[in-house]
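Hello,

Our lab assistant flagged a job as stuck in the queue for most of the afternoon. It eventually completed. Since we weren't sure the result was trustworthy after the delay, we are filing this so someone can double-check. Below is the sequence as submitted and the structure that was eventually returned. Let us know if re-running is recommended.
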Amino acid sequence: MTNLQEIRSIIAKSKRWDLAFQIVGLLSMLFGIVTLMALVLNLMHDGLPRLDWQFITSFPSRKAEEAGILSAWVGSALVMLVTAATSIPVGIAAGIYLEEYAKKGWLSDFIEINVTNLAGVPSIVYGLLALGLFVYRFKLGESVLTAGLTLALLVLPIVIVTTREALRAIPNSIREAAYAVGASKWQVIWDHVLRYSTGTILTGIIVGLARAIGETAPLVTIGALTFISFLPEPPIQGQFPFISFKWLLAPFTVLPIQMFDWVSRPQEEFQVNAAAAGIVLVIMTLAMNGVAIFLRYRLRKDIKW
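-- returned structure --
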């Protein structure tokens, strides 16, 4: 009888601890959500009155009422295009090699530790690295290409780590079943392992690109402009060869830098402009994440375990 009472007491105590943990977790989640919503609502309250077509299609100006973000949002879009085109294939390929092909030993452990550490390095360090490598060594200048490669270095460790974790989570039974019917190692990875892990990999890509689009410090380090009143040459031309890559070497600015320039000015009108630019940056981030989430949903929809 005594043992039964002790067991009941232990169970009741465990339930109380579980309830306490649930309450603390719920309050923590609500605190984060409420704080985020308050900041977003405050941003929208300040910036929505200024957000119109003229603001989106105008270049920056010394007059707050005439200033716009055309060069900034176009620059952000082009830089993120270079970042995604560089970091996604390289990061996924590196993750596949380290997880599926590299021999387990001190060298692979050393690489894994360093890749994990690089994911937490301050962004300004990447800016200094890019300044010495891309600007001074490779002579790429303060260009869209330099900015995209800089942010690609920032995103790359996140993509590699996420890819490895996604591949590691796939049950070995899937690999063994594919080998049993005569598939090669690459066929197992391409047709089965990657197919099941794509959703998780896309989640890591979302996190990495969302971090990159809001970065300012590394782009300031490599020489991004705070005031630019022209657009890069368009990549699609009306004459042969119809495609131009001159925009890659064009000077640039991005939305976070434009916002930084405006909030550093004392006039209240420029503060309103910065809030409106912040809304556009949030919309661009949500749109980018929405595309990735849609792709993840479509890929998972057809997968049957």
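-- support follow-up --
The delay was a queue issue, not a problem with the job. The result is valid. The chain has a mean pLDDT of 84. The longest helix spans residues 2-47.
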